[in-house]
Amino acid sequence: MSKPAETGVFDPQIVWPAIGHAFAKLHPMVQIRNPVMFVVEMGAVLTTLIFLRDLVTGSGHLAFSFQVILWLWFTVLFANFAEAVAEGRGKAQADALRKARTQTDAKLLAPDSHSSYEIVPATSLKVGDVVIVEAGDIIPSDGEVIEGIASVNEAAITGESAPVIRESGGDRSAVTGGTQVLSDQIRVRITAAAGSTFLDRMIALVEGAQRQKTPNEIALNILLAGMTIIFVLAVATIPSFAAYAGGAIPIVSLVALFVTLIPTTIGALLSAIGIAGMNRLVRFNVLAMSGRAVEAAGDVDTLLLDKTGTITLGNRQATEFLPLHGIDERELADAAQLSSLADETPEGRSIVVLAKEKYGIRGRDMGELHAHFVPFSAQTRMSGIDIDGSSIRKGAVDSMLACVGGSSPVPTLPGTAMRASGTVVVTAAVRELREITDRVAKSGGTPLAVARDGRLLGIVHLKDIVKGGIRERFAALRHMGIRTVMITGDNPMTAAAIAAEAGVDDFLAQATPENKLELIRTEQAKGKLVAMCGDGTNDAPALAQADVGVAMNTGTMAAREAGNMVDLDSDPTKLIEVVEIGKQLLMTRGSLTTFSIANDVAKYFAIIPAMFVAFYPQLQALNIMRLSSPQSAILSAIIFNALIIVALIPLALKGVKYRPIGAGALLRRNLLIYGLGGVIIPFVGIKAIDIAISAIGLS
Ligand SMILES: Nc1ncnc2c1ncn2[C@@H]1O[C@H](COP(=O)(O)OP(=O)(O)OP(=O)(O)O)[C@@H](O)[C@H]1O
Ligand SMILES: [K+]
Ligand SMILES: [Mg+2]
């Protein structure tokens, strides 16, 4: 995994444009999305108008008012700046991606030809068009390989230069526009028109163009808005207290008090925290389609993983033909090959290859054979062919046995009549078949049974390899308290072998797409947050249902569209980083909210005595900060309130450090640091500012 270095928080290339954006974001229609800061802006507008009036009439404390108003505007600008910096970091990543979206031409296949094509610009391609892509060509748009196999360099989107295999059929058929074919030739059916390709969506995502507030953010915003309203009411009563003592408090002081008391720190940084979380994922080569997915990742309890292509490499290859007693190996190979001639899955193709390598059985022309082809489906878990009155099937052993009547002695495949003595033959064959199946399965291989006209011939052994380093990573997930469950369409014994090798906690075998979906719903009904990693079209419903659906980039378009995250490195254990980033996001938000609210304590001690000491001398007891003057107290508080936003931008963007020490311990630790820190820091900060401004004689 190549991980681009993190740009510095205050990189000049990001800071300068962000300053401009901070002013542009002053527009009330932009500001209204953030209620706390909108209120601050309204306060700034109101006091500015009063100041202008006083300027004309020559009344009021003009110098003092001017300084307070300036800092009110700074408060809003700093909040805007924080968001703009977060967005700017995303834009830098988007620009890198945009370079990959170079203008290319496409070799558009003429509608009823197999080889003649015309060159057209990639932008003119429509969904459904078929293009030829040859070695050296850039794939013009997203699509599905419908014929051929090729090695593809996807570095443009993944940053990983090792080529990947893309082939028709199966779960590795999706190709991404902007990537380059290195060898061979493929035919690609275009699945996305210009402007809505994967790369386009990636760019829009990292730029934050599609960012929507998550339910958690909305809830927090409502809470903050609620607190703001309470402080409006509280501050609104102050003039009457002053009037009672025969004095008056200038509006600008009231607004300053109000702004320092409302939760401006978290209000200013909330949006930046969310954007930064998504950006952090991008740096790990994971694209989150929604902020909600990132948050959910922070609380995941159960991780479900598809086996083939997710836990294993996914190119299951036929390695052996294992005939039943009394059946010629060549007869089995021949039947297996026939049933696979039109099977465009990697499994089917590898059977044709093995039959040719081992027995020299040549491919036959499907057109001349007058055959009816039965394609593989995840429901039937079988595929095959009806040819010359005979029917050949291959598939998962249990499905095949149900079909040829392994459980009942009566075969149900068409075209078979049962002899009276047949029962015994079938049962013996079934027993032997089970023995072979178990042997293959125990080694982690996938056994495919082959039958001709209801007569079992034997087993094809498909081999697959568990992805490297996966075991330790699953152990790390367990340590984080996440249960891993492998779900596969394969038989229980193969599943058990692979599950043991990969080190998952549990597995579900012989699962149909509906079973996968059901399992997720059951977990969710128990109140658990479920993540699912998958690559196949048959995983799509589950990916859509899961709270966090991580599609492998090697997977099909359907899978990539259904999930709410795509892992460009196709590494299911990346969930560790995804969860950490999610937890970090939640913790950062929680910590800064705590800090923001704790901040208020010091401000009460700074401002309240300063405001009232003239009317109520006994409040002098509260004046523990001994600030130089009431005006300096108000000014120091509002300056601190604005500067703390800028000071916390790096923390908001980088996130508080995640430590796997358990939720309770973490909460205590954060309360101590951010709660206590939030109480103490403003006392020190406000006092320091007070000393500084009275030294330079600002107030
Ligand atoms: N081309 C094929 N023809 C016939 N049967 C097949 C073919 N490919 C796979 N099978 C059988 O169907 C079963 C389920 O298919 P598949 O592997 O696609 O399911 P899955 O739910 O995606 O599980 P996995 O986790 O293994 O990817 C396989 O275990 C195998 O027994
Ligand atoms: K505040
Ligand atoms: Mg699969």
From TrEMBL:
GO terms for cellular component: plasma membrane. InterPro entries: ATPase_P-typ_cyto_dom_N, ATPase_P-typ_P_site, ATPase_P-typ_TM_dom_sf, ATPase_P-typ_transduc_dom_A_sf, ATPase_P-type_domA, HAD-like_sf, HAD_sf, P-type_ATPase_bsu_IA. Mg(2+) binds at residues 535, 539. Residues 115-207 form the P-type ATPase A domain. PROSITE patterns: ATPASE_E1_E2, COF_2. It is a multi-pass membrane protein. It catalyses: K(+)(out) + ATP + H2O = K(+)(in) + ADP + phosphate + H(+). The chain crosses the membrane at residues 35-52, 64-82, 218-242, 248-273, 601-619, 631-651, 671-696. Its main location: membrane. Pfam families: E1-E2_ATPase (PF00122), Hydrolase (PF00702). CDD domains: P-type_ATPase_K. Gene3D superfamilies: Calcium-transporting ATPase, cytoplasmic domain N (3.40.1110.10), Calcium-transporting ATPase, cytoplasmic transduction domain A (2.70.150.10), HAD superfamily/HAD-like (3.40.50.1000). It is an enzyme of class 7 (translocase). The active site is at residue 306. Part of the high-affinity ATP-driven potassium transport (or Kdp) system, which catalyzes the hydrolysis of ATP coupled with the electrogenic transport of potassium into the cytoplasm. This subunit is responsible for energy coupling to the transport system and for the release of the potassium ions to the cytoplasm. NCBIfam families: ATPase_P-type, kdpB. This is Potassium-transporting ATPase ATP-binding subunit. The gene is kdpB.
